[in-house]
């Protein structure tokens, strides 16, 4: 009579063994990015957050480019051409350090580079993508405006024809990397609908102003772009970008990275809380021994693992060419909400220590306030899912 071998006890840091289904190549990406983040970024991130900036963004860009992370899911032009899951894993490990660092990478790759890759001319791709992939040039993505956030179709930035050229006027805001970018992908309304343009930094009439006094995503450069009579040749227009669907498709790429990144933030908060609960003693024993603490930790590990499974499943669908944008909305909404719940419980378990930068939990908690808003608020994604399940649009 044979005896059944008992399965090993769950790993507290990967309770459902989600990572066991990764391929060797995906595991290599995970381990390489995790090691880089913990070695080069984690020791300084609290100081960068407190200072409200990235002190050497170009040095960081070169280091990230050296790992091949910029536009890593794109094909050709110096891009790595990895799977969607591999790209998601990179986003997860970056955001486990800080949302601002993941945003630095995903804005470059999934917004600026992806826009040029999908909608640019061969000349534009050859000019911009290889140096951006290498981290030698930095890009940004100008869509959001002071009065046009969730409704980008109401944008006031205009591009008008003047002879063979285009002249752009308007303002974009909340633009990650804006004031350090070498080029901005800017979206503007024209007489024929929304069009995209690559605006090199230094173009007369184009200025980028840093937004200060942020309480969230502080280890990130956020800017306002002002276009005052910016004159561009026809060759600056993205020739294949016609209509609002073009920038929205880029946003969908960024949202995919966010739903993975939120898993990293949640995991970091859970791991910090688990470690703290095991070492913090009250009433003569570790607080991990108390029932209410264990309930919080159990709820946290469930949220982290549910979010991990959602991200991995959507990544597999995306690699199969079967991931619909409504499903990305599902992942962005559900995973960010899960990360916010985990961060709040982790801050509670840390007590007064939880409000300091000695521990990562409040930093992640504050960052997630931005993550919940950008690339579509939770309301927008709820309505996207609602439209998908009812067949009725509630947007207009």
TrEMBL record:
It catalyses: glutaryl-CoA + oxidized [electron-transfer flavoprotein] + 2 H(+) = (2E)-butenoyl-CoA + reduced [electron-transfer flavoprotein] + CO2. GO terms for molecular function: fatty-acyl-CoA binding; flavin adenine dinucleotide binding; glutaryl-CoA dehydrogenase activity. Residues 23-136 form the Acyl-CoA dehydrogenase/oxidase N-terminal domain. It is an enzyme of class 1 (oxidoreductase). One of its GO terms (biological process) is fatty acid beta-oxidation using acyl-CoA dehydrogenase. Residues 242-389 form the Acyl-CoA dehydrogenase/oxidase C-terminal domain. InterPro entries: Acyl-CoA_DH_CS, Acyl-CoA_Oxase/DH_mid-dom, Acyl-CoA_Oxase/DH_mid-dom_sf, AcylCo_DH-like_C, AcylCo_DH/oxidase_C, AcylCoA_DH/ox_N, AcylCoA_DH/ox_N_sf, AcylCoA_DH/oxidase_NM_dom_sf. Pathway: Amino-acid metabolism; lysine degradation; Amino-acid metabolism; tryptophan metabolism. Its EC number is 1.3.8.6. Residues 140-230 form the Acyl-CoA oxidase/dehydrogenase middle domain. Its cofactor is FAD. Keywords: FAD, Flavoprotein, Oxidoreductase, Transit peptide. Belongs to the acyl-CoA dehydrogenase family. This is glutaryl-CoA dehydrogenase (ETF). The lineage of its organism: Bacteria, Bacillati, Actinomycetota, Actinomycetes, Streptosporangiales.
